[in-house]
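Support reply, case 0932

Customer input (verbatim):
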Amino acid sequence: MTCGLGNIGAESISSLAKDLRILLMDTDSEFGLDPETYTIEQVAKNTRAFLFEQKYNVLESKPQSDLSFYVGGYSSGSGAPEIWLVTINAHAGSSPEPQRLSEGGGLVWGGQPEAINRLVSGIGINHAAVLRNAGLDDPVVQRVSDALAAGMQMPFLHAAMPVQDAIEFADFLVETTKRFVRFLPGADTVGGDTDIAVVTKHEGFKWARRKHFFSASLNPTEVSYGARYPVEKGKRGHAAQERAVDA
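Our regenerated output:
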């Protein structure tokens, strides 16, 4: 998952991600991974080295915007999912940061966070500034913020949530953000069709929903993991056939 910059130089983030995929799978490449011993942390470090050092840092004119590139999955032999954040900008000199390293469930979001922050955390991202403007000093603001974070958090997710529920919940959060941003003043910064994918320990990466440049009938090798999300709207029969092939 990415947010922020849509390209580095003349290359789109989508194209760069596919280039990186090829390099990670090539054991002779400097970024190549051993399928038996790789870690998600190493994937994140290789991602940063490729995007920042080889692509971004060589640009004569650096973009003003940032790129957030999330790397998630399971390290070789591990049963605990991990999510790491790679930040690309003119000042990003640190290593990738872990966002979630646990066997329990949880949420990570970025880009336009206000809608999800209010829905899940129960508070807006600028609540601390509002409290300071109301005359509270920093220690009180911190105590109030901690109390709000502990008491207002909505327990949407749990470790045993079915995959289908997780798919639908992710879709709900994205659609909520789209509609939230749509009615705010300014440009619609979130929109378009949504791609959804699932990463599980044994099945690996699977598309739950993916937009295509052409009809799904022209993409017979693409399979759908989510039973309620056909590859193309109105093509439930074909999507069911694809899921049968996947099974």
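We compared this against your earlier run and they match. Two observations from our side: The CA atoms of residues 105 and 158 lie 5 Å apart. The beta strands are 2-4, 7-8, 11-12, 67-74, 81-88, 97-101, 196-200, 204-209. Please reopen the case if you see a mismatch on your end.
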